Every structure is written in structure tokens, then in C-alpha cells.
């Protein structure tokens, strides 16, 4: 596994033309992805992003990615709806399921609102089979994302890695609960809209719990998102916007009659170190997915460099992207970093 880093489509195009015997995954802005798709071979997967993670750390406006041996990976198109691809996904899974180091890396349209249905389509996978992925972005334009397998535009792509050394999946959460909880009393999971918390308009109650005015609420999303605590693990459900009727649209589904914890930031360096301490081996390659809201927080506070120093200090051979949502095992969530380390 080798990370790739290009500053222009011309560089990426030349590399693809010279390495037709390798599998290639590239992450870039929508326009770059569409340009590269015109010359992409069948073993190239392209995904649009909201930023790139590279061997030089966090970057924007560049092309990141990695190569892999073609004989170790099977690429499966994930259609919309994903259930249309269930037979192909299950067949590919069956071919790698007996390898404890195997995993699936999934990319899907980050504006579709379908990530939860994609993850439930993987009902056939064993609980210990590794699944990690991210939702394609478009640099916060929220207009159109782009994923390609070769020259063919698709809703999503699942890459089944039959890796022959150890792999480890990690989730880094830089938030913890304040101890305050909101009961979802009215919500539409399909549109990801919450109408009320504790039987009050969603924005009104959320702002009240934070002790701020409603007009200040959207500015508080970055530092005080909401999360679902499941078996001691927090899965963040990021709010996207406050609607005119004081309902709130989220980046992930919220189910009525469930509780969401109000979260607050932890100390970044401690969180980063905790992630590194949980590595079971020194990796030769790291593939990571970083949420857009997490990235925006780091940019506003000028703390991306802290994470770069931590991650690249362990392994400089890295690739990844800034996403509109993260996937791990059977869950879709936000404001998190998920990564897979390769021995």
C-alpha cells in the first residue's frame, strides 16, 4: 500500500497512465474527480471530498489517494438504493470473510441521505468483520458529489480488501457528554429532521440547554453537537441547520423517543494520544476519514497541525479525505475520525 499525493490533475493523470497494473483510489474536489474520470481505467476509484489528507498532512485543493495490488481487492458498485447491490456485496464478502485481516472500505454519496440504509444492507456480515468508510463531499457547496469506478459514475463503491497482514480499525472522538440529555419527541428519520426535544421546538430547547439565544445556536453546533451513547461508545449526530419552523436538520438519522446527549470538546492532544496508544502495531500505511465539521473546527482553531504531528509521527505513508459522514461497522455518524491501520 502506497500513498499518493498530487497537486494537479496532470500529475494524477500521468500516474494513472503509467500504473495500469495497480489498483488506485483518489480523493479530490468534484471538478478534479470529473476531469480524471475521463481517463480513469477500470481499476481506478475516484471520490469527491471536502478536503484531502495526505503524506504531508491535511491539505485542500490537492489530490490524495493510494495504490493497492489488484489481486488483493474486489471493487463492487453500491447502487441507489443499496439493496439493489446486496447479492454482489454478499458474494464479495463471502470471498474474504475467513480472513480476519480483511475489511471493506465504503464510499457513498454524502448528499443522498441514504448512508443508514447502505449500512443496513450489510446485514449478512459477521459482527467482527471490519467495515470503515466515508461519505463523499463537495467542499461545503452541498450541490453534488461524485464517485466513479473507472469512467462510470456510481452512487457508491465498496472495496473488499483481502489483506494478508494485520489491520486495525480505530475511531477517534474528541467530544464527551456534558451529562445533559434531550429526548427526541418528534422527528422524521427519513429527512433527518427533528421537530421537537422534550416536547418543545427543537431549536428552542437545544439553545436553552446550552444557555444561549436561539440565533446563536448554529454557531454552537461545532463545539456542542449531540450524540448517541451506545454501550459506552459515543456516536456523534451532527446538526446541519436550524429551519424556519425551529426544527433542526441533522447529518444522520434521529429516531423519535430516543435520547441524545449534549456533547463538549475534550482536550485535543489527550484525545490524539489516546488514539495512538490504542494502535496494536506500528503501521506501514494508514487510511483515514475525517468529518467536515471536525475539519472546520480544526481550521477555525488552527489545530490541524496538532493532529498532523500526531498521526504522521506514527506513519508518514498516509492517505484520506474530509467527508460528509463516517461509517464504522454497521453505523453512520459524524464529527469523528475513523481510520484503518495496515501492518
Automatic annotation (TrEMBL):
Residues 19-201 form the FIST domain. It comes from Paenibacillus hunanensis. This is FIST domain-containing protein. Residues 202-330 form the FIST C-domain domain. PANTHER family: BLR0328 PROTEIN. It holds the Pfam family FIST. InterPro entries: FIST_C, FIST_domain_N. It comes from the Bacteria. Signal peptide: none annotated.
